[in-house]
Amino acid sequence: MNTGGKDLKLADLRGRIVILDFWTFCCINCLHVLDELRPLEEKYADVLVIIGVHSPKFEHERDADALAAAVERYGVDHPVLDDPTMDMWQQYAAKAWPTLSVIDPEGYVVANMAGEGHAEGLRRLLDELIAVHEAKGTLHRGDGPFVPPPPSDTLLRFPGKALPLPDGTVLVSDSARHSLAVLDADLSAVLRRVGTGGRGRADGGPAEASFSEPQGICLLPSDVAAVVGYDVVVADTVNHLLRGVRLSDLVVTTVAGTGRQWRSSLDDHAHDARAMDLSSPWDVAWYDGKVIVAMAGTHTLWWFDPVKRTVGLYAGTTVEALRDGPLDQVWMAQPSGLSTSPDGSRLWLADAETSSLRWIEDGQMHTAVGQGLFDFGHVDGPADQALLQHPLGVCALPDGSVLIADTYNGAVRRWQDGQVSTVDSGLAEPSDIVLDADGSVLVVESAAHRLVRLAPAAAGVVDGGRHKVERPPSPLAPGTVTLDVIFTPAPGQKLDTSFGDPTRLEVSASPAELLLDGAGVTSGLTRELVLNPAVPQGVLQVVAQAATCDADAEFPACHLTRQDWGVPIVITPGAPTRLPLILRGLDA
Q1: Number of other residues whose CB lies within 10 A of the CB of residue 111
Q2: What's the count of helices (H) and strands (E) in the chain, helices before strands?
Q3: Can you tell me the distance from the alpha carbon of 174 to that of 190, in angstroms, rounded to the nearest whole number?
Q4: What distance lies between CA 392 and its chain's CA centroid?
């Protein structure tokens, strides 16, 4: 894709530096990498070619049309190879989404990097490769193979979320056009638009303000809005910001975030909202006297107090998995949709990567539908057996039932009294569901670039099959094993020991009984774990980070490298007693 129909071979790129970006469009870390690569694509346009290799996780992502839509939706301005059976993934021995492979002008793989946060390391590596190959005469400058697709003319372009307004109009995040749109009551015309239409983060009036792939929108209570001077909070996702919009004149103000992506450690403190980094806020909802933020980029929920202008952690630990319980101990995976029950007692959420519907009540999180990171499908029936596929939206109804935008199944599903049914299907990636003032249900049909009213219909029962992502487990011996996280600083950097040990390692397991010893948080990147021989298999959840600074610089800049893994393991007598993981993964 993105070559104007021309076949592209690696041999055609000899003389250029090539980065293969192994990604899948459901993955928030992969989307972060797309944004990290944009400045490099621009700066090194005459020597660098980036090829996206799309190796899918979900069944829906194997569809070529869905991939083409995602390439446009996320502004991928380089060629993309569709790798539905993951052949290229296996040839390059990729192990995680995302993975970057760097190929020098002579065709040799010179570096592999797993995870995100590699922009600075890549820049230094590119500078080194350019210098070396210009001296050798093996670097050829010129235009790349990217051919942009023709522009599209639709009312909206990949809308994300919607908010019915008191005057009967509907405010929509027109994500691929980096703006907000006010639709008339018939959903057929744009009355007003907020934003220039280009990526940016400027405040101001509707013609001057700018966004970058905005998503969630929520209305503040009128008494709160009167105090803070704006009515609506918008999750400005790719800018890592929350924006406030005053409905009277559509003036936009930044209310939370610095514009930098969060790469730090969590705490339970309140922080100045404008001084705190955020990470891909995807949806917002008013609950428990605050704006709750689905922070998809860290697999957590945060709160934002617009009056005190503070933010903080609300739920989650950053571990990407599914676990219920007290809010400070739960695990989520890319929460992407929020809805408060009409009586205010529950906050419902669509947890996209675990394909689950969950709710919060009285300081506890519960799962209504969903099995975990690797189990998904389109199956109705008892909620503990039903399956969804990467839902992005949720809507709590007055009768206690909940509608789910089951995005990758192209369906609207309903949970009610422990049962799941299908209300509508054949939709193009529905991403949000909202209740209009007249009681009708509006669906954001994102890949069809429109909003539609849900026709009243009797719910049906569907069994569309079960799917499971099978990643080869790592065999480990029962008893004591060594977890060894190998960290290589980026070129030109060194570990920053100014304030003590610059590393942090957090380990947990699913099920928890898998680990007899070794769970918890420590400094250092090596730890002995004791695996329970009575538990045949499970997943080790590992989060590692290391602080570095520029080497040999008078005023060194500081950097934080962070990566999390869910490592499937199988307990096998006589298997290895060491589990190596690579943080940053810079193998020159």
Answers
A1: 22
A2: 5, 43
A3: 11
A4: 11
Buried b (16+ CB within 10 A) or exposed e, 62-72: beeebbbbbbb
3-state secondary structure of 283: strand
Question: Which residue, chain included where needed, has tokens 């609950």?
Answer: 287
464: its two tokens: 């569309």
Whether residue 200 contacts residue 208, with contact meaning beta carbons closer than 8 Å, is answered with no
**Spatial contact of 454 and 440, defined as CB atoms under 8 Å apart:** yes
Task: Give the model's pLDDT for residue 464.
Answer: 60
Strand ranges inside 353-410, DSSP E? 356-361, 364-369, 375-379, 381-382, 393-396, 402-406
For residue 312, what pLDDT is reported? Answer: 97
Rounded to the nearest 10 degrees, the angle between the axes of helix 28-43 and helix 119-136 is 40
Helix (H, G, I), strand (E, B) or coil at 222: helix
Write the CB contacts of 343 (distance below 8 Å, at least 6 apart in sequence): none
3-state secondary structure of 77: coil
- The Cα 339–Cα 434 span in angstroms is 9
Q: Report how far residue 540's alpha carbon sits from residue 569's, in angstroms, rounded to the nearest whole number.
A: 7
C-beta atoms surrounding 202 within 10 Å:
13
Tell me the torsion sign for CA atoms 370, 375, 378, 384: negative
DSSP state of 296: G
- Reduced to 3 states (helix: H, G, I; strand: E, B; else coil), residue 4 is coil
Task: Let me know: does 259 contact 274? Beta carbons within 8 Å.
Answer: no
- Are 20 and 51 in contact by the 8 Å Cβ rule? The answer is yes
Tokens, residue 467 = 């799917």
Determine the pLDDT at residue 263: 78
Per-state percent for the chain, helix, strand, coil, to nearest 5: 15, 45, 40
Taken in order 527, 528, 533, 534, the sign of the CA dihedral is negative
Amino acid at 250: L
Mean pLDDT by 10 residues, the chain (588 residues): 92 95 92 94 96 92 94 95 91 86 95 84 93 96 91 93 96 97 95 96 97 98 97 98 98 97 85 96 97 96 98 93 94 96 97 96 97 89 95 96 96 96 94 92 96 72 59 84 86 79 87 90 92 91 83 72 80 91 54
Where helices occur in 108-221 by DSSP H, the ranges are 119-136
Length of the chain: 588
Overall pTM > 0.90: no
* Beta-bridge mates of residue 382: 419
What are the CA-CA distances from residue 376 to residues 59, 297, 332, 390, 470 (Å)?
9, 21, 15, 8, 12
Check if the beta carbon of residue 409 is closer than 8 Å to that of residue 378: yes
DSSP, collapsed to helix, strand or coil, labels residue 513 as helix
User: Which structure tokens are listed for 420?
Assistant: 């799941």
Question: What pLDDT does residue 472 have?
Answer: 64
Looking at residue 145, what is its pLDDT? 94
Across 185-240, the runs of DSSP E, i.e. the strands, are 190-194, 214-219, 232-236
Residues 135/11/54/510 CA torsion (nearest 10 deg): -70
Question: Could you tell me the strand order of the sheet in which 80-82 lies?
Answer: 80-82, 48-54, 17-23, 99-103, 109-114
Beta-carbon contacts of 456 under 8 Å, excluding residues fewer than 6 positions away, are none
Phi first, then psi: give them for residue 471, nearest 5 degrees: -100, 135
E-assigned strand segments in 38-78: 48-54
* pLDDT at 585 (0 to 100): 42
